[in-house]
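Case study.
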Amino acid sequence: MSNSRTVILFWQLAILAVVLVVWQWGFEWSKTLLPKAYVPKILDPYFVAKPSLIWQSFLRLGCFADATGFTACIKGSDNNLWLATLVTLKNTWWGFLFGSASGIAAGLVLGRSDFLSRVFSPYIVALNSIPRIALVPLVILIFGLGDLSKIATAWLVVFFVVFFNTFEGTRAVDRDQIAAARLLGASEFTVLRTVVIPSALAWVFASLLPAVSFALIGVIVGEFIGAERGLGKLIIEAEARANASEMMVAIFVMMFVGILLAIAVRSLQSYLLRWQPQFEASA
Amino acid sequence: MIAAPSQSLALARDEGRAAAARTRIAVQGLAKRFNASGREFVAVDDVSFEVKQGEFVALLGPSGCGKSTILNMVAGLLPRSGGRILIDGDTVETGEVNPRVGYVFQRDTLFPWRTVEQNIGYGLEIAGVPKSERTGRVATAVEKAGLAGFAQSFPRMLSGGMRQRVALMRTLILEPEILLMDEPFGALDTHTKLEMHKTLLEIWERERQTVLFVTHDLGEALTLASRIILLSARPGRLKEDFDVAIPRPRDPVAVRETAEFARLYSHIWHSLGEEFRRTRAD
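After joint prediction, the assembly is written out as follows.
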């Protein structure tokens, strides 16, 4: 009874309501109720803004409440919320795409070749030990302040995650299934296409979900360090003006972008892996 | 010897029988030694036999006698340590696939990401058979295996017996003239096993492929085979060779009531018993 859908939904909404109410009015109340020394700084709107201010900033940055009208406002600003979101989303997508495609390709090649995997193994371990974020300034130095450096940063973080999973997945393919395919007339390439890849796909997808979040992280960090546009740039600008509510707007938009990307990967996954029991319901 | 083109398969088979049963599989002085942690042990030792066109030969022996090893060497899946294997007069090369030979595994090797019909049609698909032709042939095979209504199912939705039927059809749809089977029904319960025997008997009595069937189940060997080759316990050596003169068509249940079944059963059981005792004495 206590875990019926309605009850769960009730508690979810209740938690949301409490958070929003405390966030909006908690600081004011605590000032009148508590001695000054106990007033929680974390609730100060100077640091964390508050829902009503965030909403106003959202309307302003998104050109919803501009005197000149929506279109004129969009054209008038070179890093409005829409453009920033689009740029960040686009760079995340390309970084994710290149990162996972190259990760899958490298994982398949090294997974199928004992020789190559043994030759490359120390280099891969070494490169993977570098904290990727440390490379961001270098990437910006090489590729400039534009979109290319953000895509390259996302690529860096995505590649290894996908590579390692594809490699393991390729290693874990059932040898008897490969033998069966051979005996049914499959060539080396056909075995790769019809047995190894579908079989490794479950492993690949296990990495794509975190990879898409990593791609977003890579792009945002790139935008922090040096960019002309994007949500990360929006945050850095707001920080310079100590404008917490604008930062919060960008953060919330990132959250939605992250959710959308995860849903996209998830639905592709449940279609391609519909032969697996855990995806049966959604197939 | 020149391979018959696949469209004249049936014709070739009839010719084969007419020409006083030519030899399809010839195993000569076959040996297999393994190295296990520095110590060499002999799995198969000097085994020779022949399988003629249209014969259903069961390779029977106690567990670990090397019968699957022999089959895998015949299929070219495993290199041999000594001796020769000829299929239609040509030496079997390890790693080379002979399109005239079909192989059915003991383990479930279906592709779980393919539906029943996609599994059955796999060989045709990769051979580039056009979809229009494939669809019809797959539908016939699905029907023949008694899997109507499950064509769109994924393997995990099927029982063990149904999965093995799919595996059988995946091999048979390519119309192999020679069929190698490695305890294909070993993992099934008794009832399902009898059902599978019925299906296999129906198919074989109609199509008369040349079959080499590995099993440790004496009842199964007597039910299906026209000849039984009995192997000794490790190292696997040829022990005895029997013809199973039970008339066809056979029914997997009725066959057990024939005098020939009873006679061979007790004879081979005795012989097999000696081998089991030897295995335990090791």
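Observations recorded in class. Chain B has two domains: 6-100+196-281, 106-175. The interface with chain A takes residues 75, 77, 97, 99, 101-103, 105, 107, 109, 111-114, 122-123, 126-127, 154-156, 170-171, 174 of chain B (CB under 8 Å). We will return to this complex in the next lecture.
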